[in-house]
Each structure stands twice: as structure tokens, then as C-alpha cells.
Amino acid sequence: MHVCVSIKMTSLCRGQLVLARRASPETFTSIFNTSSKFLYNSPSLHFKRFIPLTTSLSSPIISMAQKQTAAGISAGANNGGGCDNGAVFPLSASTILKIIQGDITKWSVDGSSDAIVNPANNRMLGGGGADGAIHRAAGPELLNACCKVPEVERGIRCPVGEARITLGFKLPASHVIHTVGPIYDADRNPAASLTNAYRNSLALAKENNIKFIAFPAISCGIYGYPLEEAASVSISAIKEFAEGLKEVHFVLFSEDILDVWLKAAKELLLP
Ligand code: AR6
After folding, report:
1. Of 152, 155, 176, 147, whose CA–CA distance to 164 is shortest?
2. Is a pLDDT exceeding 50 seen at residue 8?
3. How far is the C-alpha of 48 from the C-alpha of 85, rounded, in Å?
4. Facing residues of 69 across strands?
């Protein structure tokens, strides 16, 4: 039995309310695992969620902006440059997915075991879009570090679907994982290449003891991947390969992309 709670999100970055339980980690995980159903009417950002009646409605709705800890959702996190209207989904008993709107260059959780993913090109020497923003925010040391990544063939440091790691330098996050998504119209199997970009980024994160990782919508800008298709492939890949990390975040630049991701996550992750 469930009770419906709805919150009208009236404007970008203003509606920072996210339903979460002020509960112990064990309680929260158990709620997720047993019966929570988070539903959205995402096009209008009018959130509807069904909270199991095992929880008390007197429990407060937690604003992520208040940086409170709710069951391992990181205290002190600077999740997405202050624009953190979004949602939390369970991936497993020990891993959650957060989908928020914001600027990935401002994201961090603890500054030591966190990484942002850079949707780079195979040369790894910077570019436009998020890649350019990440290099500007990290400072010139990031370019120096990228130059030191060995070339696997002439001019290519990171082939499509692979990943490389550097420090974050002036970024709030400690590390940058550089990956190369497919150019949608040029790749023979863009879904496989995009899946590989997520899988290899997550594997590299785990090899480097990263616990918190934030992805943008890889390939959805300059590389032209259609949003709905990309959301489905990206969330499916996260669902399959995120085990071992504490939190995986999508930090999405615009409300349009956020809506598409929330809809796909609801379809793919909720019972
Ligand atoms: N924070 C979060 N998301 C962002 C940010 C940001 N600061 N800036 C852009 N986005 P793109 P791609 C979103 O083009 O399609 C570069 O030149 C953006 O709205 O950055 O994989 C590289 O060097 C979009 O949804 O990456 C490559 O040559 C998403 O990030 C090429 O672009 C990805 O858009 C890679 O193209």
C-alpha cells in the first residue's frame, strides 16, 4: 500500500526538493530493496512518488541542497553545481544512481575518491562542450597530464569506447576519467561503443578506488547521439556495470536531458 506525494517543481534549480527518507542507511536500503516506487511526471518536473507506508509521512522531505546525509547519499557533496533537482534510484543494495541537473565541472563528493567523466575525443587534448569546460576548470595541468598518456597509435591516446584516468587538478573532484563516446552517424555500432565507454569508465574507476563517479550525457552533444536512445543505453550500462561503486551520478546540463534520463530510469530501474 502506498501514499502518493507530489511536489511541483516550479523552476529550474529552484525546486531542489528531493524526496528521501531521513533514515539509517540500513532502513533506507531496505526501503529501496523492498518496495519503494519512485514515479515521475517528468515533462513538467511535477514529481510524483509513492512512498511505502512502512515509512512515516511525518518524516521530513530532505533537500539535497541542505547537504544532508540520507543513507549514504554523501554529506558535504557538491553535486552538480547547486542545481540538484533530480532523483535517486537504487542499483543494488550497496550502489545508488543519482540523476541531477547541473554543471559537471562543479561536482564533487569528497575530493579524494570521486571522479568526473570527460566526454573527450580520441586525441585527449581538449575540445569543445563538456571537454572544453572540464579543461578550463581543471587548469593547464590537466592538458599536461593528458599529453603524458601514451599514444596507442599516432595521435590517438584513447580509442572510442576506452577510458583513461588523470588527476582533477583544480577541479573539485579528485580525478577525471576520460572516455570517448561514438560519433552517432559515423559509428557502425553506436550502442556497443557507448556501452563500452560506460563499462570501461566504471572499471577504471574501480581499479583506482573511486567510490563516487559522475557522468555527463556522453555523445549527446557534438557527437549527436539521440537523447532517448542514449538514455536507455547509458542507464542500462550503469545498471549492469556499477556494482562496487557507492554512487553513480548523472550530471545533466539541461532540463530537457534531465527529463529524458528520468523517464528512462523510471522505466529501466523501477519494479
Ligand atoms: N556539465 C555537464 N554537462 C555538460 C557540460 C557541463 N559543464 N557541458 C556540456 N555538457 P559534448 P560529446 C553536456 O558535446 O557529444 C568535445 O569537443 C552537453 O549538453 O560535451 O561526447 C570533445 O573533445 C551534452 O549533453 O560531448 C569531443 O570532440 C553532453 O554534455 C566531442 O566534444 C555531451 O556533449 C565529444 O562530444
Report:
1. 176
2. no
3. 14
4. none
